Amino acid sequence: MQLLSDLEQQLNALDAQQLRRRRRIADTPCAPHVTVDGRKLLAFCSNDYLGLASHPRLVEALHEGATRYGVGSGASHLISGHSRAHALLEERLADFLSPHLEQARALYFCTGYMANLAVLTALTAPAGRDADLFSESLNHASLIDGARLSRARVQVYAHGDNAALEVLLKSSTAKTKVVVTDSVFSMDGDLAPLPALLGLCERYGAWLVVDDAHGFGVLGKYGRGALEHFRLRSPYLVYMGTLGKAAGVGGAFVAAHATVIEWLVQRARPYIYTTAAAPALAHALMTSVELISGHEGAIRRAHLQQLVGQLQAALHLQRWTLFPSQTAIQPVIIGRNDEALRASAALHEQGLWVPAIRPPTVPADTARLRITLSAAHTAADVTRVAEAINAVEAGVPA
Predict the structure, then answer these.
(1) Which residues, in sequence order, are CB contacts of 265 under 8 Å at separation 6+?
(2) What does the pLDDT read at residue 18?
(3) 338 in any annotated domain
(4) Tell me, what's the pLDDT at 44?
(5) Residue 130 and residue 180 in one domain
(6) Are residues 166 and 250 in the same domain?
(7) 230 with 131, same domain?
(8) CA distance 86 to 72
(9) Which residues lie below 8 Å from residue 358, measured CB to CB, with a gap of 6+?
(10) Which member of 30, 66, 191, 303 lies 3.0 to 4.6 Å from 280 by CB, making a disulfide possible if both were Cys?
(11) 270 occurs within a structural domain
(12) Same domain, 46 and 164
């Protein structure tokens, strides 16, 4: 069958470029010490930044939610699937972000991918094709796909290049302008210059959509994310935070001015035409927000920052480069796909799970080890992985 033959050829081409991806099966809860494919490993690859994914209080809250609300929601939010658990979570998230958003309201989504598709397609919809969308060059795939699905004219500006963005904004005559950016870039760990971006958006009348997937719960004194970290507040902000990373459960939310959220309820197709997430998840997430914003969350964030500093001090690389990041994402840039794969395999042989990230997730010739730290790691864990990476670099041929 020619159709299958064509796909096999494409798969073989991925193999030749060391680009085929393979899944591993975890047999234990998300935590630093896991059993994967029957083998015990020390993992540095999850986005469970605060170590909440296996927290006993969240496990108890999820059980309580399932007992109270059942397992499934049964329908989309606008039919009959919007439960009291969803409503309470949205109210809590809106209150949590209210210091940074005027007349804040929040909307819960099944995934961050869906939330980003919803925001970008709905915000540009009123202007039709008379909308300009300005996208950061290192944005997440969900933002790229949301931009493609919108009817807007999409213009990509270089990473962190505020001057280039201002030129684009200044020359735009579109009825609707939207600037969209990650806050913490998922493969580099650096932060977008959000204060400068917001200033440009307010000056030129553009929405600023911030994907804070890797900042929510981690950044800021109370874990309110990038908006708290930079002390931002504006009606021009549209904020997306995921709830399956630092929050430890699943789903995502969009928070913005109440008018923006009401528009999403009425016109965001990824929200309208999908079954609502299980109410039990929303119920458990109420406990997540409590943990993030409370004393325990502060302790976990402080410990995480200590681990970041420890790792950076312990890595002594000669050929590879530790990317300058102050977040839990610590990338070691290697370059070639095959060398990155060999490095990851060598670490795996030592019981360390540190993934090799390759194109198209990252630009060509920037394959890397992506080390992600969690507040559930110990100082001994970090010492172990740092010493191993130092030794592997010396032993893996260029």
Answers:
(1) 77, 78, 107, 271, 272
(2) 85
(3) yes
(4) 98
(5) yes
(6) yes
(7) yes
(8) 12
(9) 18, 19, 337, 340, 341, 367
(10) 66
(11) yes
(12) no
Residue 9: which residues within 8 A CB-CB, separation 6 or more? none
Rg (CA), the chain: 21
Mean of pLDDT over the chain: 97
Question: Which of 272, 293, 314 is the last residue in one of the domains?
Answer: 293
d(CA 351, CA 35): 10
- Average pLDDT estimate for 119-139: 96
Contact 68, 283 (CB under 8 A): yes
| 280 vs 277: CA distance, rounded Å | 8
CA distance 163 to 140: 22
Give the residue-averaged pLDDT of 104-119: 98
Which residue, of 274, 293, 312, is where some domain finishes?
293
Mark whether 249 and 264 lie in a shared domain. Answer: yes
Residue 388 domain flag: yes
Tokens read off for 49: 């930044």
Q: What is the pLDDT of residue 19?
A: 86
Q: Is the pTM of this model over 0.85?
A: yes
Are 85 and 130 part of one and the same domain? yes
Question: Structure tokens of 232?
Answer: 């931002």
- Number of residues that this document lists for the chain: 398
The reply to whether 11 falls in a domain is no
Inter-residue contact 83 to 279 (CB < 8 Å)? yes
Edge-to-edge, what's the strand order for the sheet holding 352-353?
Answer: 33-36, 39-43, 352-353
**Structural domains counted in the chain:** 2
List pLDDT tens digits, range 90-103. Answer: 999 999 999 999 99
3-state SS, 248-311, equals CCCCEEEEEEHHHHHHHHHHCHHHHCCECCCHHHHHHHHHHHHHHHCHHHHHHHHHHHHHHHHH
Residues marked active site are found at 186, 214, 245
